[in-house]
């Protein structure tokens, strides 16, 4: 009886240890504080026909590795960051202004790098915002 208790206890402890090593523990980030300047920015390229082709190409090149090809937060690098990668398809994009998405994409913070230097063309920046919007619809 004593041996059975010892064996069961060892199995339970080993199971908890194994589970704790395999579960990703994401840091909880504070909500984004988007400055009013950006929150109120108007997208000068809303409805631009290039959004689908150019925006998609730029998204694939710079964003899909973390956010996934369909924007579900399941890119191949998503598990390498300390914070949870957002799912663009969950409906929360519609609650955000274009300026807010612009700020988050091109200024960034923490694990989300700013892409202002890598994508310096302002039209291309807005086309990515336009394309990201299509993932949420």
UniProtKB/TrEMBL annotation:
Protein name, entry field: C-type cytochrome
Domain of life: Bacteria
Ranges where the record places region Disordered: 69-93
PROSITE patterns: CYTC
Pfam hit, one: Cytochrome_CBB3
Keywords: Heme, Iron, Metal-binding
Biased amino acid composition, Basic and acidic residues: 69-80
């Amino acid at each position: 009886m004593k041996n059975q208790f010892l064996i069961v206890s060892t199995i339970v402890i080993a199971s908890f240890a194994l589970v704790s090593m395999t579960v990703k523990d994401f840091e909880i980030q504070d909500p984004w504080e988007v400055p009013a300047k950006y929150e109120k920015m108007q997208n000068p390229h809303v409805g631009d026909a290039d959004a689908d082709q150019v925006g998609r190409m730029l998204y694939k090149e710079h964003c899909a590795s973390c956010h996934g090809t369909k924007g579900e937060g399941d890119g191949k690098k998503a598990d390498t960051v300390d914070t949870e990668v957002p799912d663009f398809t969950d409906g929360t994009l519609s609650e955000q202004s274009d300026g807010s998405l612009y700020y988050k994409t091109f200024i960034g913070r923490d694990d989300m790098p700013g892409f202002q230097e890598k994508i310096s063309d302002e039209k291309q920046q807005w086309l990515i915002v336009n394309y990201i919007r299509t993932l949420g619809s």
